[in-house]
Design brief:
113 residues, HIT family, subunit A, five-stranded antiparallel sheet, 3 helices, 24% helix, 22% strand, binds adenosine monophosphate, HIT domain-containing protein, HIT-like, Histidine_triad_HIT, catalytic activity
């Protein structure tokens, strides 16, 4: 499958690893939108939030526990952070392998543009 994030998981495309376990990989976004901008992805290819179902939903819960750990490790747990998932065209999804942006290190505006 021609998926850039599957290639990152397989080490075929380089990335700045932040965290890895048997199910999840996390790395710095190549174009950071905040001082901390980490992408957290399942190693398994899931295209988008629309593909989350009863069979794989525990993986999404696990991703949130990983996000908490990374937030603590990077020292943004006290100041706060945002976890973002973009889905589909209007949602601004550009890579069709589900990913969660962990953003922090500055005050984030709401609502997004
Ligand atoms: P989204 O727009 O929600 O699909 O987010 C995709 C994100 O992937 C963007 O923030 C990109 O900057 C990021 N990105 C794309 N290619 C790479 C890469 N090779 N390494 C790290 N981040 C990437
Ligand atoms: Zn993929």
């Amino acid at each position: 499958m021609d998926c850039i994030f599957c290639k990152i998981v397989q080490g075929e495309i380089p990335s700045a690893k932040v965290y890895e376990d048997d199910k999840v990989y996390a790395f710095n976004d190549i174009s950071p939108a905040a001082p901390t901008h980490v992408l957290i992805i399942p190693k398994e290819h899931i295209s988008s939030a629309l593909e989350v179902d009863e069979k794989n939903s525990s993986l999404i819960g696990h991703i949130f526990t990983v996000a908490n750990k990374i937030a603590r490790d990077l020292g943004i747990d006290k100041t706060g952070f945002r976890i973002v998932n973009n889905c589909g065209e209007d949602g601004g999804q550009t890579v069709h392998h589900i990913h969660f942006h962990l953003l922090g290190g500055r005050s984030l505006q709401w609502p997004p543009g």
